Amino acid sequence: MLFKFKQRSVTLKLSFILLFMFMITVLSSLGFWQLRRADLKRSIEIALKERGSDVPMLIGNNTLNQETDEYRKIIAEGYFDNQHTMLVDNQIYQGQVGYYILTPFLYKENKAILVNRGWIVANSDRQKLPPIESVDSSIITVHGTLYHPFKKPPFYLGKEEGWESSGWPKLIQYMNLEKLELELGYSLQPLIIQLDPNQPNGFARSWSSFLPEMGVQRHIAYAIQWFSMAFIAFGIFIALIKREINNQNQ
Description:
It contains four helices and nine strands, in the order H-E-E-E-E-E-E-E-H-E-E-H-H. The protein is of the alpha/beta class.
């Protein structure tokens, strides 16, 4: 009995140590994750400030670079492909569920870039897509800001191509550019244009409302909280170890 009791005591101590080590590791990891998020937001803010103040670039034959061209002001001359409008599902604006409206804009023969024309509210019956106003198909000039395409949502279990409906307009969950190019019959730039709010042919476009609200300082504050909890857990762990040693010495 004495041996079993001691054996059980050792097992409990090992479980106790593993539990605290796990807690400290998780809390510290969350702190470092918030710091990485802060660095990402800081780089986005710097890019927005630097590239947003540049002279708008005119889109040409070259393929845009997702890293160096994102957030730059852009001008494109061409026409909208009204026959191939897409609705990006599950977009929140001012507490309401709706869609982003993407329409290809052809600026060269067989070359296009998707234009985010803004947000519209979803119908109460989600099985029915809202009507979308067509745009003028004549040659026009559009102004906007380059932005990354919509990425595949985590834990996405839908179709590989990313869209949920056949025909047009098409309901999509994310942008699979290769599949879209095959469907459209022309090439697409790897970035999209967020249509400027003062441009016609758009919907709700308060783009600042669609950006992540949490800034750099808030991420740092959360990181400090996680690190503080990890430090407290470590302090409790040391205090309990010291108490156990003192009890054994008595």
